Amino acid sequence: MLDKTLFETNGQDEITLCLNYDGLYGINNVNRFLQRSNPGEAISWRAFTYKIGDPVLFNETERFRPVIYNNLKGRIVDIRHDRGWIQWLL
């Protein structure tokens, strides 16, 4: 159920799993719900919104192997953007 218990952290290495992308319990909606608790400035790029402090979970890693591996976790610490591009420091 999406309620205040979603914000109760049980550990620093915690992740939330969802069955699909869309719908009330899909990852897109859960991400928006969780991101509201991040007080950072929202940066919109294309259809996405990012904030400094947002957690990141890598799952498409072939391009950067062996530096980035599947399920590597991190946080956005800086965002730079201009027309047509965006860059994150993780």
Keywords:
two-stranded antiparallel sheet, 1 helix, 2 domains, two-stranded antiparallel ribbon, 90 residues, alpha+beta, 24% strand, 10% helix
How would you characterize this protein structure?
The protein has 90 residues and is an alpha+beta fold. Helices cover 10% and strands 24% of the residues. The protein has one helix at residues 27-35; strands at 43-45, 48-50, 55-57, 73-75, 78-82, 85-89. The longest helix has 9 residues, at 27-35. Strand 1 and strand 2 (48-50) form a beta hairpin. The protein has 2 domains: 1-37, no CATH class; 41-90, no CATH class. It is globular and about 35 Å long. A two-stranded antiparallel sheet has the order 1-2.
User: Unreliable stretches, pLDDT < 50, 5 or more residues?
Assistant: none
Please report the total strand number as a whole number.
6
Q: Walk across the major sheet and give the strand order.
A: 1-2
Helix content: 10-25%
N-C termini distance: 30 Å
Mean pLDDT: 87
Strand content: 15-25%
The total number of structural domains is 2
Largest sheet: 2 strands, antiparallel
Radius of gyration: 14 Å
The best one-word shape is globular
Put simply, the count of helices is 1
Structural class: alpha+beta
Can you write the helix and strand succession as a string?
HEEEEEE
